[in-house]
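I am writing to request your help with a piece of structural work I have in hand. I set the record out below, with my sincere thanks for your time.
___
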Amino acid sequence: MTSILPDGHSSLLTQMTQRLALSDAQFQRISQLIYQRAGIVLANHKRDMVYNRLVRRLRQLQIEDFGRYLAELERDPQSPEWQAFINALTTNLTAFFREAHHFPVLAAHASARRGEYRVWSAAASTGEEPYSIAMTLADTLGSVPGRWRVFASDIDSEVLDTARGGIYRQSELKTLSAQQLSRYFMRGTGPHDGLVRVRQALAGSVDFALLNLLDGQYALPGPFDAIFCRNVMIYFDRPTQQAILRRFVPLLKPGGLLFAGHSENFSHLVPELVLRGQTVYALQEAK
């Protein structure tokens, strides 16, 4: 069959449907750039993952070479493409009430505190974690304005858009009670059957913002009674973990809690944070 595309387009189409080459040097440069921008450490076994995620971006931009993409990326340190680069290489795995043992601890801690109870979800992803926190606080403290607030952040702008939208498949809410599902979500009908949306009464108590944990200072409405930073530190090396934890310390109220992921261990990284339960750390009270 004769192609009706101009020769240049035909050549580009052929290149784009073939597997693009990713050299060792290019992979190492990608690893350096994402470490500099987001603190993420990419081991050699992540090479296929990196290729599969970035090649989709190259094809969207109609760029046929990783070297050209990296050159254009580095040409402008302020380019919006950096956010797309970070989005592509950020891993987002989350669920409602993931690591469920943390939420009764949060509820008990909130019940014992006075004033507005403030929580920061530092790796909010698509919103399941901050909304789980919000439901726990609403169940525990009620919905009186000014009693509690959740601040949620992530480095990935795309997942934050999903979180702000608050729309999920109903099948993803299996860990919720029937009462929580009815109280905090609206069921879709017609073409939206099978979907649910967070009710505004709950969504209005959660603030979302783009934030890079590598930043020297965080524009946050702290201090907080609790910080959730779960399953994100595993992507950082030890010096980066320590630097971030040191930034967390002044953002926690005395006796405040830091919730970590199931495979993360912050013991001995920062002396002010002491293990108080299963992957739960407390900021020591001043003596």
Notes: The longest strand covers residues 252-259. The radius of gyration is 22 Å. The chain has a mean pLDDT of 91.
